[in-house]
Amino acid sequence: MSYHILAINPGSTSTKIGYYENDTCVLEENTPFRKEFVPGKVHVLDEFDARMETILAFLDKVGKKPEDMDLFVSRAGAPCPVEYGAYRIDKEMVSAICFADRPTYHASLLSVVMAFCLARQAGKQAIFYDAIDADQAPPIAHVSGIPGKRRGVGCHNLNTRMVGREVAQTLGKAYEDCKFIIAHLGGGMSISAHDHGIITDACTSSEGPMSPQRCGRVDFVQLVRMCFSGEYTLTDMQRLTDSGGLLSYLGAKDILEVEARIAQGDEKAEFMYKAMAYQVCKAIGEHFAVLEGEADAIILTGGIANSKLFTGWIEERVGRMAPVRVVPGEREMLALARGGVRVLRGEEKMKTLSFLPDGCESLEELKTAFMARRPDLLDKPAVQAILALS
Ligand SMILES: Nc1ncnc2c1ncn2[C@@H]1O[C@H](COP(=O)(O)OP(=O)(O)O)[C@@H](O)[C@H]1O
Ligand SMILES: CCCC(=O)OP(=O)(O)O
To answer: Which atom of ligand 2 is nearest to the CA of 187?
Structure first.
């Protein structure tokens, strides 16, 4: 039997959509996404209309309707830490995401909402798979240094776990028998330690290297001073995560453009690009320590792993720790489709999540607090639709 699956994967720079029959890709598209910056507080649904338009246009192109799908599989964005694997997306989860009070939102949270809306319209189910918040790290990795504030361990779980499995296979081993450091080098970056199938620690741009468009780890005293100096608005601070990194130094985030400038002798571009590689190496070193100085391989993946210049600089600096394996691009769409097929075939159980933020007793209370906090959003059709759910 052939299952029809729509895989939805919005990232910082693009919306990737794939139509799969079982795990065979019929059509996949990667549409660049340009973030609009509007002053004031952000909300997870800000990009809903633009991203949904891309998905509906894709379905048109493939000659399918939402009703033709058996399952919608989303990259996620979960409202709280979860385990790896598949979770059912239901109205409680979507409400918890939409009514939460967050300073910024990753597009993978919106993905969950979009998958739910499409599935609901079609009378089908939606799941998310290997969420970026899936966190099975040991307690020691969760110590933040601030009592009462748990440090989260999240990374490009979907791609790194899939790539880990592929590299393990080439080594003649199971992923669950290997120790890997995996650097996902894309518009956003993460470095993670994989120890016998569990990601025991990880950092993303907020604690690790700058990326083409994110500022990376910043001295926290400096950051607090910036926040309270009066020189920067909330939007300015939020833009550090979307318009920081190489983009803020060079005015370019497209790595091919940066490399073209270097080839023409642009010394500043070369210095900043090298600085980004240097920061990736520092994070790899940290995660080598997490693995107690023992790794089967250091794996470099993501779009920037296509660059021999960049991966070469990294290998020069960390190659003595463990063999470096380069797996350019990402396998997220295939990982989503395969997760969906396993669920539809009954080979993997779909988990459910019941979550309310700290101090909140019911969904109704969360909704009421949201309506009082964000009256500016109440007339948006997408917000109205989510409010009407509960
Ligand atoms: N052939 C290439 N060589 C070097 N960098 C590339 C290449 N193709 C894409 N990139 C860079 O990879 C990044 C996007 O990677 P990707 O893994 O698709 O990230 P994301 O999903 O976070 O948008 C961009 O910064 C892009 O410029
Ligand atoms: C866990 C990090 C998520 C991230 O940075 O994703 P993108 O690279 O898609 O923005």
So the answer is: 8
Closest-CA residue, ligand 2 atom 2, reads 155
Sort strands 179-185 and 189-195 into parallel, antiparallel or unpaired. antiparallel
Instruction: Give the Å distance between the CA of 206 and the centre of ligand 1.
Output: 19
Whether 144 is covered by a domain: the verdict is no
Residue 101 has pLDDT above 90, yes or no: no
Average pLDDT (85-95) is 95
Predicted interface score ipTM higher than 0.95: yes
Answer yes or no: do 103 and 78 share one domain. yes
**Rounded distance from Cα 372 to ligand 2 centre (Å):** 31
Of 25-34, 191-200, 324-333, 358-367, the one with minimum mean pLDDT is: 358-367
* pLDDT over 80 (residue 228): yes
Looking at residues 256-272, what average pLDDT do you find?
98
CA pseudo-torsion sign 74, 77, 78, 84: positive
| Helix residue ranges, H only, 126-229 | 157-170, 220-228
SS3 26: strand
Measured in Å, residue 323 CA sits from the centre of ligand 2 at 25
| Contact predicate 302/186, CB 8 Å | yes
- Look at residues 183, 193, 195, 131 and name the one whose alpha carbon lies nearest to residue 332: 131
- Cβ contact 208:154 at 8 Å: no
d(CA 30, ligand 1 centre) in Å: 12
Percent of the chain residues past pLDDT 90, beyond the cut = 82
212 Cα nearest atom in ligand 1: 25
pLDDT at position 357, please? 80
| 204/261 same-domain check | yes
Q: 315 with 277, same domain?
A: yes
Pocket of ligand 2 (CB under 6 A): 11-12, 106, 132, 154-156, 186-188, 190, 204
Same structural domain, 108 and 164? no
Regarding whether 177 and 237 lie in a shared domain, the answer is yes
